[in-house]
């Protein structure tokens, strides 16, 4: 993960995170990611980890903070606490790989109530 993506990064936060293969990786910070590509979008309390080659979002942590995650047709849509869509991520190889910079920048605003299929 690119350290420059963070604002308010707390580098004194040092827990370990268990990943899918059962191993633990060390966290070296906690902060907020903000993207202003098409309006200010923020995801708070994002872990800064060097030992992995991709960015991870915890759906459980997002839900605990009042965010919403909706899974429809192999797509995950993430909404913030004011019902604005933060990102839409297509499934690939049974996982949802997001590019935080582009997925946050180009996601369109939508209300949570609009995600139902027609």
Indicate the low-confidence ranges by residue numbers: 105-118
Q: Please provide the ordered H/E string of secondary-structure elements.
A: EEEEEHEEEEH
Q: Enumerate how many helices there are, as a single number.
A: 2
Q: How many strand segments?
A: 9
What is the overall shape?
Answer: globular
What is the straight-line distance between the termini?
37 Å
So what's the oligomer here? single chain
Q: What structural class results from the helix and strand content?
A: mainly beta
What is the helix fraction of residues, given as a range? 10-25%
Amount of beta strand: 35-45%
Computed CA radius of gyration, to the nearest angstrom: 14 Å
- The figure for the number of domains is 1
| Mean pLDDT figure | 75
Main sheet? 4 strands, antiparallel
Sheet with the most strands: spatial strand order:
6-7-8-9
């Amino acid at each position: 993960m690119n350290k420059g993506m963070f604002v308010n990064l707390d580098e004194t936060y040092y827990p370990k995170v268990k990943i899918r293969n059962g191993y633990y990786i060390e966290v070296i910070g906690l902060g907020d990611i903000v993207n202003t590509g098409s309006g200010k979008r923020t995801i708070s309390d994002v872990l800064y980890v060097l030992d992995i080659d991709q960015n991870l979002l915890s759906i459980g942590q997002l839900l605990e903070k009042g965010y919403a995650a909706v899974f429809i047709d192999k797509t995950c849509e993430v909404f913030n606490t004011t019902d604005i869509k933060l990102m839409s991520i297509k499934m690939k190889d049974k996982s949802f790989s997001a590019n935080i910079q582009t997925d946050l920048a180009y996601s369109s605003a939508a209300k949570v109530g609009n995600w139902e299929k027609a």
